[in-house]
Structure formats: C-alpha cells, structure tokens
Amino acid sequence: MTATPETEAHGPVDFVLLEFPLDGLTGRASEELMKLVDSGMIRLFDLTIVVKDEDGAIEVLELTDPGGPGEAFSYFAGARSGLLDEDDIAEASVAIMPGRVAALIVYENTWAAPFVAAVRESKGELVASTRIPAPDVMAALDALDAKPPAA
C-alpha cells in the first residue's frame, strides 16, 4: 500500500545546536551521525556548520571546503530541506560562544514512525512532550545509585 500525505506517519523532528571548540574537532561526531543516517534511525533534513570568530562575526561554512571545520561533515553536503532558514541560523548564532564552531542539525527520528502510525491508527494524540538533557539523566541516575538501599 502506498502512503499518502494523509496516512503517512513520520517520527518526531528535532533541531539540535551542537557547539565545539575549534581545536577539539576529531571527526567522530560526523562519523556517528553518518551511522545514524545510514542505519535508518534518523533522516537528516538539514545540516549547517557555523563558525563564530572571537569578534562575534558569523560564517556559514560549505561542507565541501577542504581542511575547514566543516570538512568532517562533507558526506552530508547538500543536506538542506528548507526547514532551517536564514532566520534560524541567525537566531542559533546568538547562542554560540565566540571562537567556536557549531553544527545546526534538523533530523527526523524515523525509528519512531511505526509507533506514531500505531498511535494515529488508535486515534491517539500527543498531549505533551519534552526532552530531558543527557547530563540531567546521568546526574539523576548517579544520585539514585548513591542512595543507600531502603531498610
């Protein structure tokens, strides 16, 4: 059966802004992103690399520039759906610290699409959603581990 716009289910779409020190780039983040895309866990809509110099000037990098901070993400050159626009880039740039490079990524959690379809088939609706940052989860789990067992 072919999906139509009315019946097609998508996973949640997320926007993340990841900031790195210019001297800390290893290429490992791009390798892991590539694995997520290649495995089908996510679908990449947009990837933009932005550098903010020490004076606060912003430069959007081409992912194909050899030797530049965006080179590690060259596999994703052309990942532009239009969901991320110039206003979004300008707004995100305000959050970036001077002397840093950032990756703005918009992706769909395709792994969740079958669950979304099942919820829709059952006439279910999303009432609330939030993301708990990983450091908060790790701190809460560490605190639970540190508690003495109940008597």
Automatic annotation (TrEMBL):
Origin superkingdom: Bacteria
Designated name of the protein: DUF6325 family protein
InterPro entries (alphabetical): DUF6325
Source organism per UniProt: Arthrobacter halodurans
